[in-house]
Write a structure and sequence with these properties.
single chain; alpha+beta; Nuclear Transport Factor 2, Chain: A; 6-stranded mixed sheet
Length: 165
């Protein structure tokens, strides 16, 4: 997975990174998952299909480093009763496409599709849509600079999204 900005990664490296991220979520390895992100990275789930930005519009979820850290800590807290019993998930990532690579920032723009099943208290919810990742090349491999999650039904009534998509 380690590539320099002069020698871009191949699509397989990027796919493996996205599959690894999904695995960390499914195994509830929250701290390791959060470590995939740059400190100032954005995690964003727009409330409208064509929403241009998270700053001037309402979002379903918008988090930067501090809010991600707070949520990850809450997931581990024994008094997080809203997460009892703990939800389980399966994230399926497919159709990974490398849209671009910026040599100046050493960032890849990657588009993919996902289906996430969330199960808790005898209820299974299905979420599906598109991911847009900005992956920055760092010494260790990749870090997530931004992740946008476009839910297929973002403007419809939704069940609770208990864990990260």
């Amino acid at each position: 997975m380690r590539k320099s900005s002069n020698n871009p990664a191949d699509l397989n490296d990027i796919q493996q990174f996205l599959y690894h991220e999904a695995r960390l979520l499914d195994e509830q390895r929250w701290e390791e998952w959060n470590d995939l992100y740059l400190e100032d990275a954005e995690y964003w789930v727009p409330a409208a299909a064509d929403q241009p930005d998270p700053h001037n519009h309402v979002s379903l979820i918008y988090e930067t480093g501090l809010l991600r850290a707070v949520r990850v800590k809450r997931y581990r807290h024994p008094n997080a009763f809203s997460l009892q019993p703990k939800p389980r998930s399966v994230h399926l990532v497919s159709n990974v496409i490398l849209d671009s690579f910026d040599k100046n920032t050493s960032e890849y723009c990657v588009n993919s599709r996902f289906v996430m099943l969330q199960y808790r208290r005898e209820q299974q919810d299905v979420f599906a849509g598109a991911y847009r990742h900005r992956l920055r090349v760092v010494k260790e491999g990749f870090k997530i600079a931004a992740k946008r999650v476009d839910l297929l039904n973002c403007d419809a009534p939704l069940e609770n999204i208990l864990i990260y998509l």
